[in-house]
C-alpha cells in the first residue's frame, strides 16, 4: 500500500537552531495519526513544512508536488480559525472543492454532494444560508473543518482541530477523523488532549525539542516514563476497553 505522505530527514531551522530536527515517517491509508508533544516541540512547523508552506531541508512527498496536485492530495486545517468575511456557510465550505474544479466552472452535482456530506459530518445541516461570521467560535471552527472535509483529499492534515470546541464537538470531530481513516483515507492531527489522542488515534507521534522521540500505538508510546520525560508530568495511564486513559497527578520538576 503506497504512502500518502513520506517524510525523510525533514529539518527546519531558525537561524542555526533546528526547530524540526531530521523528522522521518510515513503515513499510509487507513491511519489516524496523532501528533503530540509540549508547546514549542515543533508540531505546527513540522506540519507546515510537510505541506511545503515553509523552507526546509530533507524531503516531503507533498512539498514536491505542484500547488494544485498538493491540494488534491492533502487538505490543510491550520490552527488559525478566524473567518474574516461574512459569507454564507455553504459558500465557504464550497471553497474546499476548488482543487477539483476547472478554472471558471461552477460546482456540479458531485461537488454539491461532497459539500452536503461535509456539512452533515460536522452537524451543520441547516446552517447553509447562515453568515459564517455570525456563528459562535466553536461553530466557525466546525465550518472550517467541513471545508477541509469537502475537499475529499486522501489525506487530512489538521493543526489543533479540536481547540476551542466543547467536549461533545471534540469527540464528534475525532470520531469523524477516525471514520475517515476507516474509509481508507488518512489523518494526521496535532492534539493536546492525550486521552482523546489515545482513544481515537491508531498511532501517535511524540515530538520533543524538534525531534520525533516515539512513534507507535498509543498503548506502546504513551507511557508514564514518556509523560514524565517529554511532558514533565507525573501521571498514570490506565488501560480501559476504550483505550488508554491519561490521569495527570502533578508536575515533574
The CATH class assignment of the domain at 5-81 and 153-251 is Alpha Beta
Radius of gyration: 18 Å
The CATH architecture category of the domain at 5-81 and 153-251 equals 3-Layer(aba) Sandwich
Average residue pLDDT = 92
What pattern of helices and strands is seen along the backbone?
A: EEEHEHEHHHEHEHEEHHEE
Number of strands: 11
The assigned structural class equals alpha/beta
Major pleated sheet: 6 strands, mixed
Sequence of strands across the biggest β-sheet: 5-6-7-3-8-9
- Low-confidence region ranges: none
- Tally of separate helices: 9
Residue share in β-strands:
25-35%
The shape is: globular
Q: Could you give the distance between the termini?
A: 44 Å
Helix content: 25-40%
**CATH topology of the domain at 5-81 and 153-251, which one?**
Rossmann fold
User: Which homologous superfamily in CATH is the superfamily of the domain at 5-81 and 153-251?
Assistant: P-loop containing nucleotide triphosphate hydrolases
Protein name: ABC transporter
Function: Part of the ABC transporter complex HmuTUV involved in hemin import. Responsible for energy coupling to the transport system.
Keywords: ATP-binding, Nucleotide-binding, Translocase, Transport
Pfam families: ABC_tran
Report on the structure:
The radius of gyration is 18 Å and the shape is globular. The chain is an alpha/beta fold and 253 residues long. α4 packs antiparallel against α5. It is built from nine helices and eleven strands. Helix content is 33%, strand content 29%. The model has no long low-confidence stretch (mean pLDDT 92). The strands form three sheets. It has a six-stranded mixed β-sheet with strand order 5-6-7-3-8-9, with helices on both faces. The N and C termini lie far apart (44 Å). It has a domain at 5-81 and 153-251: P-loop containing nucleotide triphosphate hydrolases (Rossmann fold). GO terms for molecular function: ATP binding; ATP hydrolysis activity. Pfam families: ABC_tran. It comes from Roseivivax halodurans JCM 10272. Residues 5-234 form the ABC transporter domain. Keywords: ATP-binding, Nucleotide-binding, Translocase, Transport.
